[in-house]
Amino acid sequence: MSRIELVNLRKEYGSVVAVSSMDLTIEDGEFIVFVGPSGCGKTTTLRMIAGFEDPTAGEIRINGEVVNEKEPGDRDLGMVFQSHALFPHKNVADNIAFGLRMKKVPQDEQARKVQEVSELVRITHLLGKMPAQCSGGESQRIALARTLVTEPSNFLLDEPLSSLDAKLRRELRAECDRLHDELQKTFVYVTHDQEEAMTLADRIVVMNQGEIVQMGSPMEIYSNPVSYFVADFFGNPAMNLVEGEFVAGANGLEFHCSQFKIPLPEKFKGATPGKGTLGIRPENVTIGASGGGASISSEIELVEPLGKDTLLYFGTEADRPFVAVIEGTQVVQRHANVDVGFPDDAIFLFAANGDRIR
Amino acid sequence: MSMTKSQRRHAFSAFRYLVLTVWLAIVAFPIFWMVSTSFKPDREWFAWPPVYISENATLQNYLVVWADVSEYAVDETGNLETVAQSLQRPWVALRNSALISVISTTLTVLFGAVLAYGVSRYGILSEGRMFQLLMLRMVPPIVLIAPISIWYSALGLLDTITGLVMLYFLTTLPYAVWMAKSFIDEVPREMEQAAEILGASRMRTIWEVVLPLVRSGLVATFLFILILTWSEYLLALLLSKTAVVTLPVELSKYQGSTEGRVYGRQAALSVGITLPLIVVGLIIRKHLARGFSFGMVRR
What we know:
The complex is a heterodimer of chains A (about 350) and B (about 300).
Chain A: E1 4-13, E2 16-26, E3 31-35, H1 42-50, E4 57-62, E5 65-66, E6 77-80, H2 92-102, H3 107-120, H4 136-148, E7 154-158, H5 166-183, E8 186-191, H6 194-200, E9 203-208, E10 211-216, H7 218-223, H8 228-233, E11 240-249, E12 252-256, E13 261-263, E14 274-280, E15 286-287, E16 293-299, E17 302-305, E18 309-314, E19 322-327, E20 337-343, E21 348-351, E22 356-357
Parallel strand pairs in A: 3-8, 3-9, 6-7, 7-8
Antiparallel strand pairs in A: 1-2, 1-4, 4-5, 9-10, 11-12, 11-14, 12-13, 14-21, 15-20, 16-20, 17-18, 18-19, 21-22
Chain B: H1 5-38, H2 60-66, H3 71-75, H4 80-122, H5 127-136, H6 145-155, H7 161-186, H8 189-197, H9 202-230, H10 234-239, H11 247-253, H12 263-283, H13 285-291
Helix pairs in contact in B: 1-12, 2-12, 4-7, 4-9, 4-11, 7-9, 8-9, 9-13
């Protein structure tokens, strides 16, 4: 049974608040992902859990025990670093065995465990090599093995894949998922990549400016963002967010912006008029067919075929173009005028301060 | 007429070698002259046109300086006792120099490395303080010689090995801290943290992770400081005149009025002063190549 609890956790660097009053309970076996832009406090939080940073205030409990005063090595944690942090003067086998040696595990058992864990992450062929002879992907597997071998009940992963190229990243992402599945241990994972968060997490903790903005399953975060920030951060291509104004019209609330005007669905009739943002995910925008909502006629300015999908760009002279995703098999003409539909249940509204209007 | 790209590249390459060769000749000439003179018989020391490589090469100078050869006594008009004493002097000076520089350099690198670790990892000295430390070293030692002499005389440190060791330790420490810090800075913190979270104590981490990675750097630092102390002349001259004489001070005596301008002997002694450093350099050259190139840790 292992559980990590953060109680009122706070970290200040001089007058800068890196993490402000954070409360969070990470359950046994959970795969939790801290995600947010750089400087949001996610790495600081992880480093406080690891014991490399002392909290300014608050408590960290691991397995029910307050660990604020404990050394990193005594917290029942394993950590994988962004830079891999392999010891360059020791060969791969010695790197992996390091933790066992520190814990005074007998020699023959060390050898057995190193072998075992190398098979688990598929690096047995590298054991005799020096870290400098291994590729980035291999290095990260070795770093994983070095952490796994001591069998901690909690794993901390600090942007472990961000130094790798896209293909390797996907490959090792799947590997992380598989390891978590097999080990059933608690994984705390920090990333700035929303896609990694979506694919790996049981629960996502979205952070911004030292605070938790939203917490929930990937689907919850995706389909029910609490603010402009979260809506903007998750999803690829990103949600269309159009700045404009909510105006009371003859038939209820309308949305006016420099490019178009549309009536808003019934459910928003209680919203206060004023400046704000309308959001709709590119995959929810309908083209041609009526999706049961407002629609406008607009010119397709750019067609971007991606194979399976095709991206259509509208209003490219605006700060951010309006994007729609359609099936790759559908044929569209650039510069053609089409009906762009806003299905009622796909529309998000955000107030000027970024809060979601429901 | 314009050159093709590859012609231009060749021309530039030739020019570069020309410049480097000229530079090398200028730099190496005094060393060549020292070695050459040390093998010349007396009459060729001042010969004009100069003798570059003597056809009558002799070991005479070496024998006179480093070995107890009586011929020197015949040349001299002074009494035999003084001559015998002077023949022992280079070896005593060599012993003094070796003791003083090895002890003080070892102390300097040891303390310097520990201090540098503190600066690098715990920020015990700010950037400004570090700079002040180096600025302190910019003070010409000679201006402090009066207070040092007074205190040394009061403490009985004048003319002692301990006295020079202490002074060399203090004056070279700033260099050692600066150099060692640059090497320790190269070791990523995450590497230490990785060791820590795997259960290694701080001492263990330093011993097993940091030290092996900065070893080459510390060896380079050691040699740098060793060269400084080995060739230090001014403080050695002023603080130890009779009992403790170091090699550079000994060498200067050959320039003095009592013995005349015995260039060949001087050169033979100079070669003896230079050789130990070259030998040390050769022994540790594997470390030097890596140490002086910095950036040795693959991130």
